[in-house]
Amino acid sequence: MEGTDRQGRPYSPIRDFPDFSRLRVDSGAFDAALAELELLQANLNPTVVYTSREIIVRSAAVETGAVEQLYEITPGMTMSVALDEEGWQAGVERTDANALAHVEAQLAAYQSIRGDSGTRLITEAWIRNLHEDLTQGQQSYTVLTPIGFQERPLPRGQYKDTSNEVITRKGERHLYCPVTDTAPEMGRLVEWMHSEEFAESHPVMQATYAHWGLTHIHPFADGNGRVARALASLILLRTVGVPLLITADRKYPYFQALEAFDVGELQAGLDYFQNRCLDALTWFAELLRAAARPTISHHLMQLKTLTSRTEQDIESPDDAAIRVAEAVAANLEKASQAAADDFSGQVSLGIHRPARIYSDITGFREINSQKLSPAVKERIPDPHPIALRYGQLMLTLVPRVIN
Questions:
Q1: Any idea which of 31-35, 49-53, 295-299 has the lowest mean pLDDT?
Q2: What's the pTM value of the predicted model, to 2 decimals?
Q3: Listed residue (283, 252, 244, 292) closest to 401, CA to CA
Q4: d(CA 217, CA 204)
């Protein structure tokens, strides 16, 4: 089974899964990360856990199309979509007019993947359906012909009917699976994914092999990378609770990992994928820790409660208001310092948005205004500089959250 020409690198059949199962996975690092997540989730409302995971899943869905240069999108806009902020659709369209249809299709496909109970058997038909879902926003693809580049309708959910190839960074033509061998090769890939060896292997090994096998065969006219990343994400979500997250601004190391597989450097390729999985687990833990921290809104609620007490309370409203207002100011300083020092601060800022802080503080200044003495009012932070300060920090740090 071979497709080649004078200058191209010939296609070789996919490797058997045991070639991958002999590679090394840092099981200790995964066990530690999963144990920490288990402890964090045990002390949080399930809705908070769901929302935190949703941020990562939506980020993966947005970035997967950008990796293939279907559109350009900023890390800040990815975070806006991930947080499901009001008006994110308009923001995506402003970033790139072609992006919205792709992003909506990818979000829908990833939501379907996330809702999978783990009982669905991965088949060729399921993979073809996944391709159809992911490419709903794409009408055509570009192909190089003897007379130049041309646009052709994209056959969604169908294996390719013409050969495909890519030019490597060295200028070589890398040929994918010949058309006549595509269905048999996909059959072999799925068969290995149903094997006992596959089921008993580490989840990262499973996800890496499935991703590599699909990109190696390249069974579709276009969208193979999106399908491979979604397939790997399904496996990882079932087993470790996070998707495969590859960001467009770091796509070149990803491409280098795929090239490592092509030249037989399997361990180097696997190391890349297990590190990306560990990164996603780390981000999940940071989101959960951030959700468990008392927020500025929490401190303001305390302040509202304390200042509404009657004169019969042991602590006067003014004393209580001053004490809690100082706690609010201290919380702001801690948040700023955390943002500069560690990733958890960055994620916290990403969740507690400036508009919400502004609204909460402004609302507090308006509520109970008749009960606050001038001395207390002077202690309450002015919302305008706080909102501006957090807005500036968001612009600086959100890209680092994605990275």
A1: 295-299
A2: 0.75
A3: 283
A4: 20
